[in-house]
Amino acid sequence: MQYSNELKVGAALILSVIIFFVGFRFFQDLPLFQGSYMLNATFEEASGLGEGNPVEMKGVSVGTVESVRLDQNDQVVRVQMRINENIRVPEGSTVRVTGFSGVTGVRLVIKPGPADNPPVTAGATLSPPPQGTVLERLSDQAPALASKADSVLNSTNTTMQALSDQLSNPDSDVRTTLQAFRRTMEDVESITEAEKETIRQFLSNLEAVSGDLREFTGTRGDSLSLAVDRLNRSLTRLDRSLASFERSTATLDTLTTKLNEGEGTMGRLINDPSLYNRADSVAARTNRLLLDFQENPSRYLEDMTLVKVF
Amino acid sequence: MSSLLEFLFSPLRALGRYSILMARAAASLDEIRTYWSNLFDQMVRIGIDSIPIVSLAGAFSGAVLTVQTSYQLESPFIPRSIIGSIVVPSMMLELSVVVMGFILAGRVGARIAAELGTMRVSEQIDALEVMGLNSVGFLVLPRVLAGVLMFPVLYVASCAIGIGGGVAVGHFGGFITAGEFMDGARQFFKPFDPFFGLIKAVTFGFIVTSIACYKGYYTTSGAEGVGDSTTEAAVLSCVFILVADLILAVTLL
Amino acid sequence: MIRIEHLSKGFGSLEVLNDISFEVRDGETLAIIGRSGSGKSVLMKHMVGLLKPDAGHVHVDGRDLCCAEYGELRELRKRFGVLFQGGALFDSMDTFDNIAFPLEYFSDLTSSEVEARVEECLSLVNLEGVGAKKPSELSGGMRKRVALARAIALEPQYILYDEPTSGLDPETSNTIDQLISHLSDELNVTSVVVTHDMHSVLTSADRVAFLHDTNLHWIGPVDALHDRPDPVLDAFVRASEYHLGDPSASVPLTQDS
Ligand SMILES: Nc1ncnc2c1ncn2[C@@H]1O[C@H](COP(=O)(O)OP(=O)(O)OP(=O)(O)O)[C@@H](O)[C@H]1O
Ligand SMILES: [Mg+2]
Question: Whose CA is closest to atom 18 on ligand 1?
Answer without folding.
Answer: C39
